[in-house]
Write a structure and sequence with these properties.
The structure holds 2 protein chains of 2 kinds.
Chain A lengths: L1 E6 L5 H16 L4 E6 L3 H4 L5 E4 L4 H4 L5 E4 L6 H12 L1
Parallel strand pairs in A: 1-2, 1-3, 3-4
Chain B lengths: L15 E5 L4 H14 L7 H12 L9 E4 L11 E11 L9 E8 L3 H15 L4 H7 L3 H8 L6
Parallel strand pairs in B: 1-3, 2-4
Antiparallel strand pairs in B: 3-4
Helix pairs in contact in B: 1-2
Classes of the chains: A alpha/beta, B alpha/beta.
Chain lengths: 90, 155
């Protein structure tokens, strides 16, 4: 399974999301590769991804995708990230 | 340049601004750039690039209730990787659907994405403790800020 976390610059908030998504997946006992990238590169980076993690503001910028787009409100809330990932990959 | 940012609990005084006055979110982001510049991490003009990112993509940098993580891509206006913390006397709205108003702004400066990763991962460790953001907002001394940032929650 491949999961991509995206933000505007690909270095700040997406990295927080990547770290916490990795933790959430450990809790769920799900093996996945989680990467972080910027929204401009998402077409390539997420071409074969099952899940895209991002914030509401960036959803419109993602463009057409076959991946499930999961919106995270609080990037530091492991409960929220775990619950939403469980639905997306379950 | 080979330079690692100082550990979070050793953030220099110049990289911390407490109870700062910002009338709006742009001013709040500029305060973060001023703190980054005061600590030697970036030029003050980096603030305009951090603002431009929000103007382009919206207030997604407000990643948790009360907290904005201002940043932009690496560039020639960044001299060393580092971060700055600004707390606001009066919280400001960034226009975020869930996490407004913002009372703590983190400014991030990155020279290369690779160097950036370690300190950002540390931030995730610190802020996964939900008491840290309100704690920072209420901090009255820079030592208090360093103490909060040095408290790492075990995953």
């Amino acid at each position: 399974m491949k999961i991509v976390a995206i933000c505007g610059a690909g270095i700040g908030t997406s990295e927080i999301l990547r770290v916490n998504a990795t933790r959430a997946l450990e809790r769920l006992d799900i093996e996945a590769e989680v990467t972080a990238t910027d929204v401009a590169s998402v077409g390539v980076a997420a071409a074969d991804a099952q899940v895209i993690l991002t914030s509401q503001e960036l959803v419109g910028a993602i463009g057409p995708t076959n991946a499930d787009v999961v919106v995270i409100d609080n990037y530091f809330d492991l409960e929220e990230i775990t619950a939403k990932l469980e639905i997306a990959v379950g | 340049m080979s330079f690692t940012p100082p550990p979070l609990d050793q953030l220099p005084d110049s990289a911390i601004a407490l109870n700062a006055i910002a009338p709006d979110w742009r001013s709040a982001v500029r305060l973060a750039a001023e703190a980054l510049a005061a600590a030697g991490y970036s030029d003050v003009g980096y603030g305009d690039r951090m603002i431009a990112l929000v103007e382009e993509y919206g207030p997604y940098i407000v990643i948790a209730p009360g907290l904005a993580m201002a940043h932009a891509r690496p560039g020639s206006d960044i001299h060393a990787p580092g971060l700055a913390i600004v707390t606001l006397a009066e919280p400001v709205s960034f226009g975020h659907a869930h996490n407004d108003p913002v009372s703590v702004v983190i400014g991030l400066a990155a020279t290369e994405s690779d160097q950036h990763v370690a300190s950002v991962a540390t931030l995730a460790n610190v802020f996964n403790d939900a008491s840290v953001i309100p704690g920072l907002a209420a901090a009255t001394t820079k030592d208090e800020v360093r103490q909060l940032l040095g408290r790492i929650l075990k995953p």
